[in-house]
Amino acid sequence: MPNTTTYLSEPDTLTLDIFFADERPDLAALYCAGQTESLRRYPGALAARAEHLDGACVVLARDRRGQAHGGMRVHLHRPDAPLPIEHALGDLCPIRAAIERAPAPLVELAGTWISAEYQRSDLAVAVTRATLAVARALGARRIIGCAHQHVLAFYRRFGAVVDASLGVHPYPDPRYETRVFWADATICPDGQDAIDACVARIQRGEPLHFTRHAA
Length: 215
Known about the structure:
By secondary structure, the protein is of the alpha+beta class. It is built from 6 helices and 9 strands, in the order βαββααβαβαβββαβ.
């Protein structure tokens, strides 16, 4: 997995850093700080901030000054390490048993956040596509995640299918209706060509970028 940072001269171009949190604690700290600040904008959402980054591969969008503007995590399932979704929903539904039945390799996508400055841009789409590319580069076949009612439609455009058997949960607090979803890591109904291009760049060790275009 690449660990390159190449900043371009355009003021609205961000670099999408890809790194393992254990190897780049400095960038992992930026991701966590940015997610915490982003979640402060939504009532009750702070309870969902990152607490389990061990082994995570992170996509982090940064500007040429190094300021973070968005991110997302990929967690490869390992039998000896519960996924974040198990920590979050393990007492509410049989999530562990469902994970054990899923085709391997399995990854969880978690912790998406976008800064207020880029909220109305397509950065969330770019970060999600890059994260799906990372999942594929890691060899994943299946994806698991969870989303509440305000963002579930966004993930559905990338192939998320709700698992009704795992119920609806008041997470991170009772204002939210959170559902577990699954997705195929190899096929995406939105932006498959863009994801394929990201995979190719990752495999060549080339950096990924996002440019915000004027409305």
